[in-house]
């Protein structure tokens, strides 16, 4: 039987079972080393594989002198069946930053467009359905970007790509299903309290499954490149600039309604009003 092992984070094999036994007896393989053979559903420690339990039990009883075994040539190319791939790290913190960098950059552009179009900013802020519809164009754009390029501006900046488990690009249908799941289960339609709840549930689900529910259901994975330190100040600057642009458009209306409830805030607002874009009539 052909066996695959993981050494230094990489798959090695296939190796015939008798060669594996020789290495076990020679002390070259430890009981906790991950291994796989046809018939197993996932990688398992050697000590849990029935084929090799006898070897490890004998080593525990006495130290044996390994018998010379004729070396066999290990094929360079893997033969069918191929073991399951080693799952990449989930990179949850980086994915969270990339997601919200995309959303805050898009929101800044969206509010500026509302201002240039002379829309009623106050009415939009007071209508929860308008706030929900604000994010729909972004998810349409994200569907196309993931389908065509496997990334978005935020993900590209942070070195992330969304692909299928075999490394191929998502189909348009698969990208659409993923975006809908993110919109519902990831950000809760953009409504603040629901968004916090959905993100909390998604975090613990991803910790358990090894990936967020939308990638788990779609059998997708997120590839990541090493993050360079000079990227961090750029991300912080983009977050700050995008937040300032949004506040420049909506701050007067937020402070207006807040000051009606809190007179002290109204007095402070009148003394030191926040910077904002002029109203358009």
Structure description:
- The protein has twelve helices and six strands.
- It is of the alpha+beta class.
- Strands 2-1-3-4 form a four-stranded antiparallel β-sheet. Strands 5-6 form a two-stranded antiparallel ribbon.
- A hairpin with a 2-residue loop joins β1 and β2.
- α3 crosses α11, α6 crosses α8 and α11 packs across α12.
- The termini are far apart.
- The model has no long low-confidence stretch (mean pLDDT about 80).
Itemize the secondary structure elements and their pairings:
Elements: E1 2-7, E2 10-16, H1 17-25, E3 34-36, E4 44-45, H2 53-61, H3 92-116, H4 121-126, H5 128-133, H6 136-149, H7 153-157, E5 160-164, H8 172-186, H9 192-209, H10 213-218, E6 220-224, H11 231-261, H12 263-271
Antiparallel strand pairs: 1-2, 1-3, 3-4, 5-6
Helix pairs in contact: 3-11, 6-8, 11-12
**What number is the mean pLDDT?**
78
What's the number of structural domains? 2
Strand content: 5-15%
Count the strands? Answer: 6
How much is the radius of gyration in Å? Answer: 27 Å
- Largest beta sheet: what is the strand line-up? 2-1-3-4
How many helices? The count is 12
The SSE order reads EEHEEHHHHHHEHHHEHH
Estimate percent helicity. 40-55%
Computed structural class: alpha+beta
Low-pLDDT runs of 5+ residues are none
- What gap, in angstroms, lies between the N and C termini? 78 Å
């Amino acid at each position: 039987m052909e066996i695959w092992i993981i050494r230094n984070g990489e798959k090695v094999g296939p190796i015939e079972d008798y060669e594996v036994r020789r290495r076990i007896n020679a002390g070259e393989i430890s009981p906790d080393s991950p291994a796989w053979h046809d018939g197993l559903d996932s990688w398992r420690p050697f000590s849990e594989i029935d084929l090799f339990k006898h070897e490890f039990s004998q080593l525990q009883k006495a130290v044996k002198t390994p018998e010379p075994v004729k070396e066999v040539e290990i094929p360079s190319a893997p033969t069918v069946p191929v073991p399951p791939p080693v799952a990449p790290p989930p990179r949850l913190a980086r994915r969270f930053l990339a997601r919200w960098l995309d959303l805050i950059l898009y929101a800044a552009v969206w509010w500026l467009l509302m201002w240039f179009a002379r829309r009623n900013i106050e009415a939009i802020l007071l209508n929860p359905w308008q706030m929900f519809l604000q994010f729909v164009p972004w998810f349409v754009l994200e569907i196309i970007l993931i389908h065509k390029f496997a990334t978005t501006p935020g993900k590209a900046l942070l070195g992330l790509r969304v692909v299928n488990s075999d490394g191929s690009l998502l189909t348009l249908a698969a990208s659409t299903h993923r975006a809908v799941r993110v919109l519902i289960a990831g950000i809760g339609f953009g409504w603040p309290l629901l968004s916090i709840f959905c993100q909390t549930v998604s975090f613990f689900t991803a910790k358990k499954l090894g990936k967020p529910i939308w990638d788990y259901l779609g059998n997708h994975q997120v590839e990541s490149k090493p993050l360079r330190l000079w990227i961090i100040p750029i991300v912080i600057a983009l977050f700050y600039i995008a937040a300032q642009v949004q506040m420049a458009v909506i701050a007067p209306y937020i402070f207006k309604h807040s000051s009606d409830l809190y007179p002290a805030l109204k007095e402070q607002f009148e003394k030191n009003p926040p910077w904002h874009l002029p109203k358009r009539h």
